[in-house]
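Q: How would the structure tokens look for this protein?
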Amino acid sequence: MAPPRPRKQRLDPSIFHLPVERMREGYYSDKYFVRARDLLLKDNHRPCVTMQVFGKAHAFLGGIDEAIAILKLCSTDWGELEVSALYDGDEIEPWETVLLIEGPYDAFAHLETLYLGVLARRTRVGTNTRRVVEAARPKEVMFFPARHDHWLVQTGDGYAAHIAGAIGVSTDAQASWWGSEGVGTVPHALIAAYHGDTVQASQKFAELMDPSVRLITLVDFDNDCVATSLKVARALGPRLYGVRIDTSETLVDKSVIPEMGTFKPTGVNPRLVWNVRRALDRDGFQHVKIVVSGGFTVEKIRQFEEQDVPVDMYGVGSSLFQGRFDFTADVVRVEGKPCAKVGRSYRPNPRLDPVE
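A: Here is the predicted structure in token form.
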């Protein structure tokens, strides 16, 4: 007999800071679920149902611990429910059951909107991040999409990215669920605050920030990444961890202009990265790493990796929010007997673990 699989650790429900009373009353739920619960309570009708939750796409699961927290804290009585589930980060197939809830329907009818939405959101972010991480491997990926969505989604999105393999997130909120903090670079705005002097802004960062903070400087402020990288490297020496190239898709860097004619010259392109790498190496700055950002997708990262472009780290933003990874919940059994709409039926999944 095979030994039982070791059970993974789940996040404690308290970490999610849920608005429990509002969720219990149905404030965030589709109205027809709230009315269904109210009707059952008025009729004193408490059928025991099996609710089956699944997605329709190949993905990497996210939001499952958050969904469990919603059930634990916001159901009428958690003690009445039996729940089994997969884990955050699990690879899932289309139609695979990821969450099974059994108990009186009125105890959790009002929560369907919430746990389905959580699963859809976090799975989208986690799956997109995992695909980027796999395309970039063994290079590092930094999760930089915070500015592309509402601030309220940061905590869970950051955790989904962390589970998917991102090595850094850009805000403290994104890093809070595993007790870390955000990472970043010397931004364009700080350079502008020092009158467009990238070297001075970088020197001030080195002087006034904690020495343990990795110093990575944006070097495209003057659209001359080679010259700026060399100036910063000469000024900071070993304190400079890396330079970040973030050239706009509408611009051609100065170092690329003489080489135009056989490749797309705009934005962050392989030739530009090679120009910076060779210049740094020639001047003895082999230790300085190159970070690229600006419009990077799975496809663009794969192209860079196939061409062996000397990138050390990818910063990825808005592309991590693309796509749809919807989830569906169906009652598939009532009082232990099959009862589901046509086309849906109970699909047991041996990978599910009971939730305590």
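The radius of gyration is 25 Å.

The chain has a mean pLDDT of 95.

Upvote if useful.
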